[in-house]
Amino acid sequence: MRLTERQARIRLGEAVARAGGQVAFARGLQGVSPKAAESIVSKSLLGRQRVAGSVLAYLGLRRDAAGDIHTVEPPSRIEVLAVRAEGDAGVRAAAALADGILGPRP
Hints:
Low-confidence stretches: none
Oligomer: single chain
Strand content: 5-15%
Number of strands: 3
Helix content: 40-55%
Structural class: mainly alpha
Radius of gyration: 23 Å
């Protein structure tokens, strides 16, 4: 899903509030020194600059090559199975075959 900078900032604000403040949130950023992390979080919240990539990653978001922000989602999975069956016994056999191939339903 595509998000605007404003929507990303709103998510960041909510995450900072859940963490108990900017300093607590900044401690969770990976690959950034603690002092720099505090500055990055502060600047990302202000709205004058883009939300930093390390902050987006921590929120489960990413920025693409065009600069758009997206949620990180697993790829979709579609399975198609076609079975032709006649009569009650054939339909039951086809259903059993489909259950065996597709596995348990979520």
